[in-house]
């Protein structure tokens, strides 16, 4: 029986590792997958697991961007170190809105929005938005093509878009990428800034969930959580590299269509079998 739970955690880690970085909503997918692959654990553990498993995915960003995000690297010039610190300042500014509201409304969000109906609606709505915004942006070149060109005001406004991701199915990366594109960012900088914003947001969200759950883990719960995190980390490395390569020559419309189709399938499934 325990082996089956580890296999479930492995599968959930794969889902998390892929969907955390693609703008298709990791939390939404985790909620939907839980309808079919249910961990034999308490509701409190599963609620915590859905968030803390994302730490594994976040560590992939830390690994891949360690040099770029390290302001103390001896290989960098003084100017490069200052530029790195500026990236971090802009990440903090962008992370503040969602961090504050996330702490204030965490329990309320869990109670009212963690369900398939919300996920289905947000998948479809933001799928349509991706297609509309990409059509409007066709042929246009982003005004912001480096982090030096990203102002603090724009960073904060992108952070305001990230607030939308507190609703499951929205996609944290999707909300920030859409916001950044609307505000004039290139797709590449939009994606990278979305990655960097995830670091403080997800560390904070995980710490909050662990605090609420407590540290009274059983051995099996520790094994399940670590399995999910490690798999999410490994898959995330591949997913991040794929996305950055993909957007060099493509837009986000394919993800928009995916969201719409998945949302409709979810509605159809639960109308028939729910």
Give an overview of the whole structure.
The mean pLDDT is 90. With 274 residues, this protein is an all-alpha fold. The protein has helices spanning 2-19, 26-34, 43-52, 54-64, 66-69, 78-113, 116-137, 152-162, 172-182, 187-213, 219-246, 253-273. It has one domain.
Please state the CA-atom Rg, rounded to the nearest Å: 18 Å
Number of helices: 12
Instruction: Based on Cα principal axes, name the global outline.
Output: globular
- Helix and strand composition category: mainly alpha
Number of discrete domains: 1
- What letter string, H or E per element, gives the SSE order? HHHHHHHHHHHH
Largest sheet: none
- Nearest-integer average pLDDT: 90
Quantity of strands, as a count: 0
Fraction in beta strands: under 5%
**Helical coverage, percent range:** over 70%
State the end-to-end CA separation: 27 Å
Uncertain stretches: none
Write the layout of secondary structure elements.
Elements: H1 2-19, H2 26-34, H3 43-52, H4 54-64, H5 66-69, H6 78-113, H7 116-137, H8 152-162, H9 172-182, H10 187-213, H11 219-246, H12 253-273
Helix pairs in contact: 1-2, 1-11, 2-7, 3-10, 4-10, 4-11, 6-8, 6-10, 7-9, 7-12, 8-9, 9-10
């Amino acid at each position: 029986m325990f082996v089956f739970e580890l296999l479930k955690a492995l599968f959930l880690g794969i889902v998390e590792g892929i969907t955390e970085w693609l703008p298709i909503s990791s939390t939404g997918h985790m909620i939907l997958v839980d309808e079919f692959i249910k961990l034999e654990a308490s509701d409190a553990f599963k609620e915590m697991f859905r968030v803390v498993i994302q730490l594994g995915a976040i560590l992939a960003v830390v690994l891949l961007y360690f040099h770029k995000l390290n302001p103390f690297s001896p290989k960098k010039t003084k100017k490069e170190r200052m530029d790195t610190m500026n990236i971090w300042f802009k990440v903090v500014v962008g992370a503040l809105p969602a961090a504050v509201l996330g702490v204030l409304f965490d329990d309320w969000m869990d109670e009212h929005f963690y369900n398939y109906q919300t996920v289905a609606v947000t998948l479809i709505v933001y799928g349509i938005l991706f297609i509309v915004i990409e059509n409007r942006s066709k042929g246009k070149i982003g005004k912001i093509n480096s982090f030096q060109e990203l102002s603090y005001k724009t960073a904060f406004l992108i952070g305001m878009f990230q607030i939308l991701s507190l609703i499951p199915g929205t996609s944290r990366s999707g909300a920030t990428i859409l916001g950044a594109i609307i505000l004039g960012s290139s797709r590449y900088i939009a994606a990278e800034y979305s990655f960097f914003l995830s670091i403080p947001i997800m560390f904070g969200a995980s710490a909050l969930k662990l605090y609420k759950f407590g540290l009274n883990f059983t051995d099996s719960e520790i094994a399940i959580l670590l399995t999910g995190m490690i798999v999410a980390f490994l898959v995330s490395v591949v997913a991040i590299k794929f996305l950055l390569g993909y957007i060099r020559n493509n837009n986000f419309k394919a993800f928009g269509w995916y969201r719409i189709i998945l949302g409709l399938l979810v509605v159809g499934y639960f109308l028939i079998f729910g």
